[in-house]
Amino acid sequence: MSWEMNKISVGLLLLLMCVLIVFPMFVSDYIATMLIIALHYAYLAQSWNLVFGYCGQLALGHSVFYGVGGYVSTKLLVDANVTPYLGGIIGASVAILIAFPLGMILFRSKLRGLSLAIVTIASAEIFMALFNNWDYVGGTVGIWLPLKDAPFHFLYMSRLPYYYIALFMVVGMVVLTALVARSKLGHRGIAVRENEEAAEASGINCFGVKVTFFVFSAFLMAFGGTFYSQFMLYIVPEIMFSIPNLVLLPMLGVVVGGRGTVFGPIVGSLLFSILGELLRGIPWLHGPRVSALTMMVYGLVLTIVSLRYSSGLMGFMAKWKRQTPGCSK
Amino acid sequence: MGMITQTVIFQALVYGLLNGAIYALISFGLTMLFGVMRLVYFAYGQLAVFAMYISVFLYTYLKVDPFVSTILTAPLFFIIGILLYKIIIASTIKIPHHMQMMVTLGMLIFFENLMLFMFGGTPMGINMSYAASMLPLCADIKIHLPRFIAMLICVFLIIALFLLLKKSLFGKKFQATADNEEGAMLAGIETNSVFRYAFAIACALEGIAGSSIISFSVVDPHTGFPLIIKALLIVVVAGPGSIPGAIVGGIMVGIIEAMSSVFLSASLGTGILFFILACVLIFKPSGFFGQEVD
Amino acid sequence: MALEMILKLEKVSKNFGGIKALDGVELSLEEGEIVGLIGPNGAGKTTLFNVITGFYKPDTGAVFFNGEDITSLPTHKICRKGIARTFQIAKPYEEITVLKTVTIGAMLHSDSMKQAAEKAEVILSKLKLHDKKQKLGRSLTVVERKRLELARALATEPKLLLIDEVIAGLNPTEIDDISEIIRGLAKSGISILMIEHVMRAILSLAKHAIVLDAGCKIAEGESENLLKEPTVIEAYIGREDSDV
Q1: pLDDT, tens digit, for every residue of A13-57?
Q2: Domains along chain B with CATH numbers
Q3: How many angstroms away from the CA of C191 is the closest CA of chain A?
Q4: Contact B205/B22 with Cβ under 8 angstroms?
Q5: pTM of the model
Q6: Cβ of residue C117 closer than 8 Å to a chain A Cβ
Q7: Model ipTM?
Q8: Which of C92, C94, C152 sits opposite A202 (nearest CB)?
Q9: HSE (CB half, 13 Å, CA atoms) of B14?
């Protein structure tokens, strides 16, 4: 029975992939943009899912690495005509160079839970302040990227290429997350998340595991920053290091979708993207009020889900699966 | 940038003290909540912002002085606090800290955007007749009158609260519960009631703080976020649950912030403040006077 | 003689802000022995475990494992060397299954997850938890949690096992079950140091015992005789926490 279930799910997945690849060729720019942004947030949620979902660390300052990635690749492009495909890798490497010592300091100390959350938030604010006052990166004015067709330099007039790259990033994260979940590292992370003392007593180097996940997430966030720069063509510290957009929103997706699961963050953030679009469709709402209303709903959902359904949608489904007779386990 | 004279420095010091009083009050409320019911309350400050809006409207349409409006906002927010406690907070205290953060972050997002929805994003402010009045202190140093009054109110409240917690029956129950919740319960103290009133008091504090702050500042829906981040940092660095720590911390933050703004730009000043606080936390994770956070 | 000592503590002291949790404790354990660690509440028994496993660093003194000084090693390295412990308050990994919990422990000395899972299955059978292997940590009963604690510790293939009050709260049948398991472990070569309040268990399992009171070792010797010693009895009087 489970083999048949697997065949069906694989088939469905392939069908889904075909739809995802073909369908956007026929949609308007507006919808394409919407899809790209939705995929982008899904990617951010998946990245954060590694450090929070699989390792349990409340690192709320990962916008630092998003911003660093974006700024490095953008500066390299604008000043030295370096293709962001390379620039992104360099940006991600710089992110690692920052994340590694930062992570080591953070986790060497006894910072836990709230203190960790606060210090990581502070680090994001520090970087924002730094970049806001740094003329070399444009300070509060920001940097503009050229609007033109330059495929080698990750610049396209059409939305489609951005869509495929965003899709590729999400699919890549699915694969990556699945690999991590099956690996020893993934299991060590979960142990640290659940009970650090017991994990340590079982021979797991909790410090090393936490730093690893921290740096890993940072690396991935940096790519997100590069993508954003190339898509939106304008970067400024207020956006690139913004906690509400880059940390809280993905966090929503992770918590509601189910942390520590492969598909949870995607489901969670897609849910919110759809919700946002639905609300935008209401005729008598317009302007900033729509996004405010959307966020209100987000906040409400986050509150309720955290209070009652802490294992998120995926957890809810898993529970339901376990209680349904006949399902293989 | 101009000469940084002694006067400028002293002026900044005074300015920092005035701000510090407000930070101290907010941190007091926050650490109170953490100390007695181990609540990590990210949405603290949102009600203060709401109070700011209420005071704006009361002044604009009814010419009610913001400081006078505290007579309305304080009891109103006390009641709101009781309601909020019943609806959300009572259940929130029972869940682990990291989920508490999620819940209260959700509340933060909700309230901030509720205000954005209702009032729009443009900053609002009021201009009372004495809004620009300066009170001379000594030499060349002047104090902005509304700020001064706000500071007086904050100091008064801090002292009043301190006395409340030390002398009153409620205060004794509060202390007992904060020290040892189980022990307090066994001694017959209704801890749930202590929590409820502590929370309501904290909300009332927000109301008063907000109404006071609007006298010299403008408000927009996002005003709450930097406030709570600073307050949280202060509380955690001073040691969660430590009231003297929160007060001292608040004042120091006010001063550091003001000083950094003199020697550098304002945003860089904030960055430096966060850096200092973060460093302190890294070396002393449980804060100076606090109990364990997690 | 020294070569046979799997565990040796030399003058271990630990202060906590003025309170002497451990004061010059010395003990040694031979390979394959089961030794009891008894004493009234607050005597420092769990603190001793914490020092041995590296959760605390002693202020003075040293801990030797198989002749090697492990005093300054981090906990996970000590586990790697072959010391495992159970926790008095068994806090299982709530969101994951029993099988996965033990597999994680077995990962330490396995090349692949598959191998770790196989080893875990064996351990679960040994501890009679096999039929519960898909249960989530948070849905386990107290008895099951205690067995899981043991299983988790065993998964790391220890040569020395520190058991912290695994008997308390069990009914006589369950006590006999676990005792049987513990005896089996010792027979397979694992040395055991066990903290216990239930004297019946100490008497049946540990020939040898050490008594701690207020951080000091006040007696040591054959379990049967220890319980008759006046100093030991005095240490327990007034504290209703053991079934002597």
Answers
A1: 888 888 888 887 888 888 889 899 999 999 999 999 999 999 999
A2: 6-283 (1.10.3470)
A3: 17
A4: no
A5: 0.89
A6: no
A7: 0.87
A8: C152
A9: 20
